[in-house]
Design goal:
Blueprint: E1 8-12, E2 21-23, E3 33-35, E4 41-42, E5 46-50
Antiparallel strand pairs: 1-5, 2-3, 3-4
Bound molecules: zinc ion.
Zinc ion (ZN) is lined by residues 13, 15-16, 18, 35, 37-38, 40.
Length: 58
């Protein structure tokens, strides 16, 4: 039986491309994310698809 390869989505920092993104406290305007690597704080993060090993699909 074959499975179709499906990636999962992770969040990455728009500044340093790190995937060490945590969700900070949600505000009225929505979720706010923080990067553990460069201390970026903001609502804008990138979302990429990776395979099981964490490699980007594109
Ligand atoms: Zn960062």
């Amino acid at each position: 039986m074959r499975r179709r390869h499906r990636g999962r989505r992770i969040l990455v920092c728009p500044q340093c491309n790190s995937s060490q993104i945590v969700q900070a406290n949600a505000s009225i305007t929505g979720a706010v994310y923080r990067c553990l690597k460069c201390d970026y704080l903001g609502a804008l993060v990138l979302e990429i698809e990776v395979d099981d090993t964490g490699k980007p699909l594109r």
